[in-house]
Design goal:
This protein has about 375 residues and is an alpha+beta fold. The chain is built from 9 helices and 22 strands. The chain folds into 2 domains: about 190 residues, FAD/NAD(P)-binding domain, CATH 3.50.50.60; about 150 residues, D-Amino Acid Oxidase, subunit A, domain 2 (D-Amino Acid Oxidase, Chain A, domain 2, 2-Layer Sandwich). It has an 8-stranded mixed beta sheet, with helices on both faces. Bound molecules: flavin-adenine dinucleotide.
C-alpha cells in the first residue's frame, strides 16, 4: 500500500466506531492519515454489539460478493494476527432442514451446491456423524433430517472486542484519536464539508468525513444535505445464561440459529421474530418473543432445558435498499465517503483494506459495484 500525499496530510474524521468504522480508521491511520474517530457511546456499542455476527460467504450471491465475503474472513484472521487478538473464531457452520420442509430443504440444497460450484469446502454429513463426534450437544433427528451441511470457512466474531481493539490499536500505533460525541452538523461550503460539529458545541476540522454510522448512516448523510438509500431493520437476539454445553460451530437449525457467545453462553436468533420487533422498542427478559426463541433453542440443544435467558440484544441492521454495501464518495459531496453495509461484521476487515486502497490511489475495481451513485441521487428534504 502506498501512502498518497493526500492521505498523509488529510484530517480524516470517521463517524462511528462499530466494526466497520474501526477497521477503516485503523487501516487509514496505518496508511498515514490523521484519523479522528467520533463515537457517541463506545466502540461496538451500536449494531455491531447486537449482531449474530456470523462471519461467512455462505449465501452471498453473486459470485463477486461471495468472493469478497470469503476474503473478508481471511482479512479478519490477518487483522487479529496483526494485533495479537483472538476475537475471530472460524470453526465452520452447520446447516440442516427436515426433508419434509418443502421450502427450506431445497433452498439449502441450492445454496450449498452453489457454494461447492464456487470452490468452497462444504461437507455433507449425516446427523449421526455430527452428534457423535463434532457437536454432541446438538439434537438432530436422523428420522427427519437426511443431511447436515458443514461449511468449512465460516465462523463468528466477538464484534465489540474487535471494534474496541482495532480503534485502540489505531490510537496506540498510529496516533489516531477518538472523541466521544454525537455528530450533529456537517456544514458545507458548496460541495465540500468544512467541519464536523458535535452536540456539545465542539467542532472538528475535516478534509474527509467517513460515514460509518451503521443504521444511522442516513441520518449522518442528511446532516450534509444528502439522502442515503439505507433502511433500518430491527432484529432480536437472546443470550443464554452460562450452560454446560459445548458448541463450536455456528448452527443454522430449523427455526433457530445458535452460536457460542463466550463464557459458556450461547447466542440465540429466531429470525422469524424480527418482523415483530419495532425499532426503538425495549424488549425485556420474560417477553413472549424471548421465551419463544429459547424454546426453539432448547429443541436443538436439550442441555439448555433448565438454562434461562440472561440478556436480550436488540440491533438495527443498516440495510442498503438493494441489500449490498454502499461504499464510496457521495455523488454530491466531494469529501463525504460512505461505508455502510449489512453483513458488516463479515465485511469489516475487508472494507478497511479496500477503502484504504482506494484512498491511497490503488485498485478500486472491487468497490465499483457498490458505489452510492447506483441509487437515484436526491438532496435531503
Ligand atoms: C439481529 C442482527 C443480526 C445480524 N447478523 C449478522 C451476521 O450474522 N453477520 C454479519 O456479518 N452481519 C450481521 N448483522 C449486520 C451487522 O451487525 C452490521 O452490518 C454491522 O454491525 C454494521 O457495523 P457498523 O460498524 O457499520 O455499524 P454500528 O456497529 O452500528 O456502528 C456505528 C456506530 O456509529 C455510532 N454513531 C451513529 N451515529 C452517530 C453520530 N451521529 N455521532 C457519533 N456516533 C454515531 C453508533 O453509536 C455506532 O457505534 C446483523 C445485524 C443484526 C441487527
Amino acid at each position: 500500500m502506498v501512502t498518497s500525499d493526500y492521505l498523509r496530510d488529510a484530517r480524516v474524521v470517521v463517524v462511528g466506531a462499530g466494526v466497520v468504522g474501526a477497521a477503516v480508521a485503523y487501516r487509514l491511520a496505518q496508511a498515514g492519515a490523521r484519523v479522528t474517530v467520533v463515537e457517541r457511546r463506545h466502540p461496538g456499542s451500536g449494531t455491531s454489539g447486537a449482531s449474530f455476527a456470523y462471519v461467512n460467504g455462505t449465501d452471498k450471491p453473486p459470485r463477486a460478493y461471495h468472493r469478497m465475503s470469503m476474503l473478508a474472513i481471511r482479512d479478519h484472521e490477518d487483522l487479529a494476527d496483526e494485533l495479537g487478538a483472538d476475537w475471530i473464531h472460524v470453526a465452520g457452520s452447520l446447516h440442516w432442514a427436515p426433508v419434509d420442509d418443502r421450502e427450506r430443504a431445497p433452498a439449502l440444497d441450492r445454496t450449498m451446491r452453489q457454494l461447492l460450484a464456487w470452490g468452497a469446502r462444504v461437507d455433507r454429513l449425516t446427523p449421526d456423524e455430527v452428534t457423535r463426534e463434532a457437536e454432541p450437544d446438538l439434537r438432530i433427528d436422523p428420522a427427519a433430517v437426511e443431511v447436515v451441511w458443514r461449511v468449512d470457512r465460516a465462523g463468528w466474531l466477538e464484534a465489540v472486542a474487535m471494534a474496541h481493539g482495532t480503534v485502540s490499536a489505531a490510537i496506540r500505533r498510529y496516533g489516531a484519536g477518538i472523541v466521544r460525541g454525537d455528530v450533529r452538523g456537517l456544514p458545507r461550503e458548496g460541495d465540500v464539508i468544512t467541519a464536523v460539529e458535535l452536540a456539545d458545541g465542539r467542532r472538528l476540522e475535516a478534509d474527509l468525513v467517513v460515514n460509518a454510522a451503521g443504521p444511522d448512516a442516513a441520518a449522518v448523510a442528511a446532516l450534509a444535505g444528502v439522502r442515503l438509500a439505507v433502511e433500518r431493520t430491527p432484529g432480536l437476539m437472546v443470550v443464554t445464561a452460562p450452560a454446560a454445553v459445548s458448541l463450536r460451530h455456528v448452527a443454522y437449525a430449523p427455526g433457530v440459529n445458535l452460536r457460542p457467545d463466550g463464557g459458556a453462553r450461547l447466542m440465540v436468533q429466531r429470525e422469524r421474530l424480527d418482523s415483530e420487533v419495532i425499532d426503538g422498542e425495549a424488549i425485556v427478559l420474560g417477553d413472549r418473543r424471548v421465551d419463544e426463541a429459547m424454546d426453539h433453542a432448547r429443541a436443538v440443544v436439550p442441555a439448555l432445558a433448565d438454562i434461562p435467558a440472561e440478556a436480550v440484544r436488540e440491533g438495527v441492521r443498516p440495510m442498503p435498499r438493494d441489500g449490498y454495501p454502499i461504499v464510496g464518495f457521495d455523488p454530491a459531496v466531494a469529501n463525504l465517503y460512505h461505508v455502510v453495509t449489512h453483513s458488516g461484521v463479515t465485511l469489516a476487515a475487508r472494507l478497511g483494506l479496500l477503502v484504504t486502497e482506494e484512498l491511497t490511489g490503488g485498485d478500486t475495481a472491487p468497490l465499483e459495484p457498490y458505489r452510492p451513485s447506483r441509487f437515484p441521487a436526491s438532496a435531503a428534504g
